[in-house]
Amino acid sequence: MLISAGGTGGHIFPAIATANKIKEIHPDVEFLFVGAEGKMEMQKVPAAGYPIIGLPVMGFPRKPSLKLFKFIGALYKSMKRAQRIVRDFAPDVAAGFGGYASGPVLRVAAKRKIPFVIQEQNSYAGLTNRMLAKKANAICVAYDGMSKFFPAEKIVFTGNPVRATLFADMVERKKACIALGLDARRPVVFVTGGSLGARSVNDVVLANAKYFENNGVQLLWQCGSLYFKELTNKLGFQVSESIHLTKFVDNMDYAYAAADVVVARAGASTISELSIVGKPTILIPSPNVAEDHQTHNAKALADKGAAILLPDSEAHDELIPYIDKMLNNNDMTRQMSEKIKTLARANADTMIANEILKLVKIHGA
User: Fold this and answer.
1) In CA terms, which of 24, 126, 174, 218 is 20 to 30 Å from 288?
2) Residue 164: predicted pLDDT
């Protein structure tokens, strides 16, 4: 099986979760991942025990510039390398979970008549997946109404796979707090900008750091490796028992268990995880993603009363008032928790794995 995924944890973790499930069903399956050179998949996939090859692919420039020529050159090289990879590995089936490498890999797979599945994590389909849809054998989605992007007969509603640890019995809050160095007697706000961090979210939290100390609220702050040193220097004396700054939280199940309120970007995998754990959440969609898909994701929840949608441009003035309101309104947070749980899909990895394995049987591999 050939898997293409990368760029962010939102593409990588669902791919790994699905591979793990397929391996559980059929231990003899041979896997090869393909990602983009220099991106986080080149570390995360080997760490999960799978081989990966990188392509020199890059994203399409949003504005006319000399980067367009670099993009064309990288795409040409990536197509050539993808042809060699598919020819040499000779997969029985392929799957794309998003990221720059999916386009070249799955285009080659289609030309070679290799069946493939694509998984669209977001409520607004990405350009690459829209272009691949006609050739795909099945399209696994996590939101209603995706027939406006894809052929209805190919759509399978599966939800988004999440990290397996979140399916286990939820760790006790007190235990989670102790493990993270937090005081279980005091409220906890968990802020995360995703696997890479988020500059604007970090700036807003930094500007309001005194709120946490002055109000006895603990901040568990996953700022991302790119911003950790800078924020440590800027916080200076403000780093205290109230502010717990970290590059990356490895045990997300502990962070979610400890949190009374979560502040996050609106990436598809983050939303899927929050639905599983049922946490009251403020979603701040990134304004720097293709086709503003995070706003569409957040709106899908906000319209159901399952989360608060806070535009990035309004976060500086509104984030702390929202946090304060949620920490002091148990009825509000309880209702949000109940509503977001109704959106959870606990068996997404199994459903996607079955769609992929079904293709292998159909094509006689």
Assistant:
1) 218
2) 63
Residues 12 and 102 in one domain: yes
How high is the pLDDT of residue 167? 55
Verify that 20 and 96 share a domain, yes or no. yes
pLDDT at 171: 83
Report pLDDT for 267: 86
Same domain for 246 and 111: no
Q: Could you list the residue range(s) of the whole structural domain that residue 300 is in?
A: 165-341
Asked if residue 129 and residue 59 are part of one domain, the reply reads: yes
Angle between helices 9-25 and 268-277 (to 10 degrees): 60
Same structural domain for residues 17 and 156?
yes
Predicted local confidence at residue 240, as pLDDT: 66
Residue pair 344/283 in contact (Cβ under 8 Å)? The answer is no
CATH of the domain at 137: 3.40.50.2000
Asked if 352 and 117 count as a contact pair (C-beta separation under 8 A), the reply is yes
**What stretches in the chain show pLDDT beneath 70?**
60-62, 163-169, 194-197, 237-240, 290, 361-365
- 226 and 247 share one domain: yes
pLDDT at 165: 60
The reported pLDDT for the residue numbered 168 is 57
